[in-house]
Prior knowledge:
Elements: E1 3-4, H1 7-23, E2 30-36, H2 40-55, E3 59-65, H3 71-83, E4 89-92, H4 102-108, H5 120-127, H6 137-148, E5 157-161, H7 168-177, E6 181-185, H8 192-196, E7 201-204, E8 221-224, E9 228-229, E10 235-236, H9 241-247, E11 250-251, H10 258-276
Parallel strand pairs: 1-11, 2-3, 2-4, 5-6, 5-7, 7-8, 8-11
Antiparallel strand pairs: 9-10
Bound molecules: guanine.
Amino acid sequence: MAVILDGKKLKEKILESLKIKIDGFTKKPSLTVILVGNDPASRIYVNNKKITAEKIGINSDIITYPSSVTEDELLEKIHELNKDDNVNAILVQLPLPEHISKEKVINMINPQKDVDGFTPYNFGKLFSGEKPFVYPCTPKGILLLLDEYNIELEGKHVVIVGRSNIVGKPLSQMMLNRNATVTICHSHTKNLAEITKTADILVSAVGENIIEGKMLKPGCVVVDVGIFKDAAGRTRGDVDFENVSKIASYISPVPGGVGPMTITSLMLNTVELFEKTL
Ligand code: GUN
């Protein structure tokens, strides 16, 4: 039976020491989240971010817009937040409605307040092997979790299923920086199972239940980034947990694995951006 990569426990440990650090500041770090539309999942994620931030002493604001908001209104708001010295970190919750250019909106964020590390400046720094102001939250959280369990990356074959800008692409670079050999698979990959079977570490970030036990090498480390509701309304990940946990050496559960680590990284990034202003 695989060891559980317990993101919930690690979140508590990291946030406890982060709170002590924040208690020592005379001024508090601040995070502003922009939420557009009324996607129920996004609303829950954003509220969780605010609750966690406030628990550890980060000032947190949520600015909400109806999905009818114009691109110009959003860009103007970001411009305003960029100029506001009381705002250290800006996060625009994705996805955005189709009439708004995600690229234009992200481009507008001052890279020094870009808490997701998604602006071209920070993404470019990451991909050229330089240090961005901060690293994207989910990949950073995955590495923190693997490090906590002393899972070595150097020389390992990491297979990432999913090529999003939020997870797959930045994670591939961060793993390369740690001297892993990285393969990225996606919806057009042929013979997915032949590739996943060669993985020492498999990361799945698709949002569909696609990873079965027979696709894995025994002893593989499995990181499940997917989270969605199945037809019966249950929270599920990409991985068939019951069977895969009998084959893998380590496995992250859903919920309680990568999700809490993403929030943890967001808090760490907010404090890092704040500290750079001191
Ligand atoms: N939507 C899903 N994950 C993320 C994330 O990490 N950052 C932002 N901004 N939006 C998301």
